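May I ask for a single protein's sequence together with how it folds?
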Amino acid sequence: MLEEVQSISEIAHEFDNGGFTMVFLLAESHICVHTWPERLAVQLDVFLCSYLRDNTVKCESIFQQIVDHFNPIHVDRTFINRE
């Protein structure tokens, strides 16, 4: 499903320690990725909005694809219903 999301713009910033922050501005909101190599941590925010349909399944799929890419040892997940 990640390939189905239309990215309007992307911006990234790399830090000296190898970490980065990247924001994907989407036609339906945003995906943010923040990394902390010194903590072996990644923080994700996947937000898709639409008043015409429920994007919960799409958000969960995109989140899981990103998690699978990073292959973390531990995942803390918080779901926020933003209706």
Summary: The first strand starts at residue 7 and ends at 14.
